[in-house]
């Protein structure tokens, strides 16, 4: 009888290399899958390592263009940002990788998949929900949630001992005291010394951005052109260099933004599973695009449409963070947001300088901005006398509140005694 085939989401690191050997011990045939989403990785060395351990094959799939065009660009178009700070670099990569994983599982006749995500994190949820949405019949082996595996392996020391016993190659480079996940959009850092939120991340942690204190003394200025909310062209104004392909645009902005220290954040966030976690992120290119898109969006959209769209974008960011990219509610909200973007076309000039990105000008034929109407130099078609009635109508409820309850004394709510000001 032939063995069941397992497709393992493989990284080449200690965890998934040990999981590969462990799956072979459970009498499975294991094929390894690696998705190239722009991370710095020696795929040839990882492939050789997996085959040496005993994998029947290793599939390396280049997904950089697919990731940028089908996940990163829509996220920019929708203005997605989780809890007002995190641009979802890892969250967006997971449904992309899952698509590649499921495609290969079907092609190779694998009935099971496996991964090395831990039981406390978001990735286990993102991977598995995406895979079930794409292939409801797939089965999952999650070793770090299995009692037999967890009893055998408490942590890294047990894995190292296991690797030594079975001659599994282990990097001679000392492990950094934090974990890292990278793709073409960002790098995230967590765990280890970062688990204490009161300890600042060391400068050597950063790989995509340099410290703003060491950034160039001359800003980098670029013009970004959007069509229906999507970036379609970027021009560096000093050199005249122009990029139009999504991957080329992101690569350029990553480099330019990174040189100026743009896109660093250090946050505590709410994981879907209910825990709070501390994460450090570098997202230079998309930080620039998000800033430019937001400016153009405000310039082009009706005020009330913008507010509804913002609400929907917050919901969509939650869906993406929680692993629901392929869920029906996400598909519905995505369509609604994209409808709002049909007039978000134009160009924005941004300046990257010492940790900051600032919009300096914008143009669009679709803008509802009326310079004559807004001007303080002429009345235009606006009658200033109408403002009297506008103010009086809006004052009705304030006067009625005063009639019933008296003056609202807001200042008393902000008074503080000396003891209130002491840190706990």
UniProtKB/TrEMBL annotation:
Pfam families: Arginosuc_syn_C (PF20979), Arginosuc_synth (PF00764). The keyword Nucleotide-binding applies. InterPro entries: Arginosuc_syn_C (IPR048268), Arginosuc_syn_N (IPR048267), Arginosuc_synth (IPR001518), Arginosuc_synth_CS (IPR018223), Arginosuc_synth_type_1_subfam (IPR023434), AS_cat/multimer_dom_body (IPR024074), Rossmann-like_a/b/a_fold (IPR014729). It is an enzyme of class 6 (ligase). Pathway: Nitrogen metabolism; urea cycle; (N(omega)-L-arginino)succinate from L-aspartate and L-citrulline: step 1/1; Amino-acid biosynthesis; L-arginine biosynthesis; L-arginine from L-ornithine and carbamoyl phosphate: step 2/3. It comes from the Eukaryota. Residues 5-169 form the Arginosuccinate synthase-like N-terminal domain. GO terms for cellular component: cytoplasm. One of its GO terms (molecular function) is argininosuccinate synthase activity. The keyword Secreted does not apply. GO terms for biological process: argininosuccinate metabolic process; L-arginine biosynthetic process; urea cycle. It catalyses: L-citrulline + L-aspartate + ATP = 2-(N(omega)-L-arginino)succinate + AMP + diphosphate + H(+). Its EC number is 6.3.4.5. Residues 178-399 form the Arginosuccinate synthase C-terminal domain. Gene3D superfamilies: Argininosuccinate synthetase, chain A, domain 2 (3.90.1260.10), HUPs (3.40.50.620). Keywords: Amino-acid biosynthesis, Arginine biosynthesis, ATP-binding, Ligase, Nucleotide-binding, Urea cycle. HAMAP family: Arg_succ_synth_type1. Belongs to the argininosuccinate synthase family. Homotetramer. This is Argininosuccinate synthase. It comes from Anopheles culicifacies.
């Amino acid at each position: 009888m032939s063995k069941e085939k397992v497709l393992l989401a493989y990284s080449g690191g200690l965890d998934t290399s040990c999981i590969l050997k462990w799956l072979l011990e459970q009498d499975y045939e294991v094929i390894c899958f690696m998705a190239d989403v722009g991370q710095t990785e020696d795929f040839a060395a990882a492939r050789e390592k997996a085959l040496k351990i005993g994998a029947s094959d290793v599939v390396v799939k280049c997904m950089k263009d697919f990731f940028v065009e089908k996940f990163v660009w829509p996220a920019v178009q929708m203005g997605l940002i989780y809890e007002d700070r995190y641009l979802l670099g890892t969250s967006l990569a997971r449904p992309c990788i899952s698509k590649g994983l499921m495609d290969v599982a079907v092609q190779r006749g694998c009935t099971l998949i496996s991964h090395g995500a831990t039981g406390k994190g978001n990735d286990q949820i993102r991977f598995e929900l995406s895979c079930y949405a794409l292939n409801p019949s797939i089965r999952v082996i999650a070793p770090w949630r299995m009692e037999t595996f967890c009893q055998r392996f408490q942590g890294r020391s047990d894995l190292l001992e296991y690797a030594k016993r079975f001659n599994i190659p282990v990097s001679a480079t000392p492990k950094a005291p934090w974990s890292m996940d990278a793709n073409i959009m960002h790098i995230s850092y967590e765990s280890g010394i970062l688990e204490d939120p009161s300890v600042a991340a060391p400068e050597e942690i950063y790989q995509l951005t340099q410290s703003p204190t060491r950034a160039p003394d001359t800003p980098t200025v670029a013009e970004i052109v959007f069509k229906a909310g999507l970036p379609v062209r970027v021009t560096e104004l000093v050199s005249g260099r122009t990029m139009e392909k999504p991957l080329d645009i992101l690569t350029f902005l990553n480099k330019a933004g990174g040189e100026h220290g743009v896109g660093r954040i250090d946050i505590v966030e709410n994981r879907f599973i209910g825990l709070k976690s501390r994460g450090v992120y570098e997202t230079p290119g998309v930080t620039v695009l998000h800033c430019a898109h937001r400016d153009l969006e405000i310039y082009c959209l009706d005020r009330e449409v913008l507010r509804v769209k913002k609400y929907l974008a917050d919901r969509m960011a939650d869906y993406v963070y929680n692993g629901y990219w392929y869920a029906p509610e996400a598909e519905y909200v995505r369509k609604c947001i994209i409808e709002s973007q049909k007039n978000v076309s134009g160009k924005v000039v941004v300046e990257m300088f010492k940790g900051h990105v600032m919009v300096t000008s914008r143009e669009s034929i679709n803008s509802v901005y009326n310079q004559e109407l807004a001007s303080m130099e002429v009345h235009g078609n606006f009658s200033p006398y109408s403002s009297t009635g506008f103010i009086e109508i809006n004052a009705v409820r304030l006067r009625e509140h005063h009639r019933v309850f008296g003056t609202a004394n807001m200042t008393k709510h902000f008074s503080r005694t000396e003891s209130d000001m002491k840190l706990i």
